[in-house]
Amino acid sequence: MKTRSTTDSDSLSATRQRRLPEAVAVAAALLGAALVAVSPHAVFGFPSGHSVNVNVFWYDCFSAQLFGGELLPRWLFDYWDGLGAPVFYFYAPFPYYLLALGEILLIGQWGDFGVLNAGHVLLFFLSSAAFYVLVRRYLGPFWATATAIGYMFAPYHYIDLEKRAAMGEASAYIWIPLILIGALRTEKTWRSTVVTSFAYAGLVLSHLPSALLAAPAIALFFLLSSERPERLYALAHALTVGILGVTLSAFYLLPTLMLRDTLSFDGWVTAQGAHYVATEWLIGSPDLPKFGRYIYQVLGGTTALGLGSWAAHEAFRRSRFGAELEHPEGKITAPIIAVICLCWFLMSRLSWPLWEYLPFLSQVQFPWRLGVLIDVCGLLLVALFVPPVIESALTALRLAGRRRRVVEWAFCAVA
Which residues pair with 348 in a beta bridge? Predict the structure, then answer.
């Protein structure tokens, strides 16, 4: 006769056995999509993004010291022809550890640009995997995989990595979905708090400006995704996550903050021209650079796609075909839309006093760095509201079996 504990153990083992094939299939699909994302490099060569040369030079110095036994290279001794520079006293190191992993996977072959290619693949793969874990709470494996691939190809995400070669900022796409998972947990235990704190620490160790910009948005998400009586507790939980995350990343962050006064803000930001002044990049600025207009158009498209998905879902739900339309559980729509609105406010001229008079905010340089949050929230709205509409429409059309799957795959391919 089996005891209750034995039965529970058998049930857990069976669940793990069922999940393993799903995990392998999803990982293969996401890795395949990541390889497709960088496949143009094989035809046109590695893109000459804004920061490619910096990434190459920094990684050459970083990897030489890392593989030489220095766990966290801060002063790059070989930089500037041996003069050295305190690069990683200020810049976050996570992307360069990821490049080191890529070099290990390539067994040291294919040179610097082979390593950069591997780094891009890993960033695309890990970010889509994080988004998959987030949306799998609401969707089955098929749609969760499809929307995770869509997240990989989100316009600003793709531009950030392929056009700007901003590996630090692109790394934020890994951590923000994991932080939102912590916010959406109904039971916020100490274990979940610590796990979420590690995700925020990962964000700090990837890109400090993104961690700074994301902080108020994350707090807002925690607040609005909770029931009204629990909102004070939710804010306390968000604050705890932030404090623990900063503590976990203190080995990098503390020297950065202590040495900040050794840098001249005028020397490394304003002296380089209006291109690096945050207020010049706000929507409505008379001197908004052309690249800024392009980025805001891209982010506007992502926002329209997300809000349009939500509006289409609501319209379909009120139609005669939407009687059985599934709706996401919990209060998730309001916090997503609130974060999108906050981001657009901070990117507009309405927020000019904040960027002008808060020195730590002006050092972010580009307000459109908030595009990471807009991509996450926009694609999350698509993931939550488009698949249920499609499934209900196919049911209303009485499509089933193979024909239904063909239509689903066709939609994903077109998207």
Answer: 283
Q: Phi and psi at residue 46, in whole multiples of 5°?
A: -70, 135
Cα–Cα dist 290/292, whole Å = 5
Q: Which of 399, 381, 312 is nearest to 340 (CA)?
A: 381
Tokens at residue 140, please?
A: 């089955």
Strand partners, 283: 348
Q: What angle do CA 252, 254, 259 make, to 5 degrees?
A: 105
Q: Count of alpha carbons within 13 Å of 161, Cβ hemisphere only?
A: 28
Residue in 219, 236, 220 with CA at minimum distance from that of residue 338: 220
Cβ pair 128, 35 in contact under 8 A: no
Of 86-90, 106-110, 229-233, the range with the lowest mean pLDDT is 106-110
Cα–Cα dist 162/274, whole Å:
24
- CA nearest neighbour of 217 among 345, 47, 352: 345
pLDDT tens-digit series, residues 259-301: 877 766 555 555 555 567 888 999 999 889 999 999 999 999 9
The backbone torsions φ and ψ at residue 401, rounded to the nearest 5 degrees and listed phi first, read 60, -135
Q: Among 56, 93, 87, which Cα is nearest to 72's? A: 93
Adjacent-strand bridge partners of 85: 76
User: The tokens of 82 are what?
Assistant: 């041996």
Percent of the chain whose predicted confidence (pLDDT) is above 70: 85
pLDDT score recorded for residue 404: 64
Alpha-carbon distance 352 to 282, whole Å? 8
pLDDT of residue 1: 46
